[in-house]
Amino acid sequence: MDSIPDGPQEGMPLVEVGSLADDAVILDVRDVGDWRAGHAPGAVNIPLAQLISRLTELPVPPTGPLAVSCGGGTKQTRAVAYLRAHGIDAVVLKGGMRSWKAAGRPVESADGDERG
Known about the structure:
By secondary structure, the protein is an alpha/beta fold.
């Protein structure tokens, strides 16, 4: 797979928001504006459109797979399919940032403000 697949990718492995630590290593594939508005603390933003050219910048979790998030749509499934095809142990953060926020997990904005 030399390109990121189009459309939602079924059957990608999932990780539940509740099973991750507040400071979990997360790859956020949303556009920069969405990421700046609110993201998980410590999340690394590599927009889906830049993923192929920025693979060397992927965060490396100390243990386990790399959780991948978007707003809660299909970008994360597409990113995980691409990463897994390239030998990277990646999983979809079930529900993305919508689920993260709904669970009351910490969120910070690009200006450094942290929200609970």
